[in-house]
Amino acid sequence: MSESVVIVTGGSRGIGAAAALRLAAPGTTVLLTYVSSPARADEVVAGIEARGGRAVALQADVASEADCLKTFAEADRLGRLTGLVNNAGVVDVAAPLTDMSFERFRRIFDVNVLGTMVCAREAVKRMSTAGGGKGGAIVNLSSASAKLGSPSQYIDYAAAKGAVDTFTVGLAKEVAREGIRVNAVRPGIIETEIHASGGDPDRAARMASDLPMGRAGTAEECAEAIAWLLSDAASYTSGAILDVSGARAIVP
Asked: Which residues are catalytic?
């Protein structure tokens, strides 16, 4: 069994893949989940192993409670859970609220909010010193849209990520004396495939010149923030929501 197990949901691509690779280390097993990209997940596993770590890819959809439970059962088999990166998330095509269906709302909240909450619940059960655990850290993935609102684009996604922010703060306070730290990373415009899934694959490149730094961010830059929040270097950091947006998400 591994000395340490870290779960990265949605770990086959984008920020999840970069985080999984960044967390590769001897003595640590990265358990990454994916929904529909087994070949991509296998590439990430190979990359982690090449860096001296151990990795397992598991097909699981965080919108399914059964799949979440399956993921944590696999983590139990692998070793002691020390970290959770709630990265899995989805957007839909840009649209005003009046053009959004109830089915779209349900999917956005099932993945981005309920999936995050169920996975965090299962992590706390295993990590909490009140329940016999040895502590750990959780990092949730938010979005700059939680502050900016994404009007006429992804207002549903923005609302879901706002819920993630509130959940992060509340859970951090709830488990602060149980050896668990809970934080979030709030990316801005990042060069990942999520824009393509929202019907706008060139969004990051098109917006680059209008961003404060004149460029979009990278998945690897987000991964560095995630890794720090999981590490002992952030031992007194909990309830924080770290903007990785190149100054885009600054609001009064």
From this structure: 157
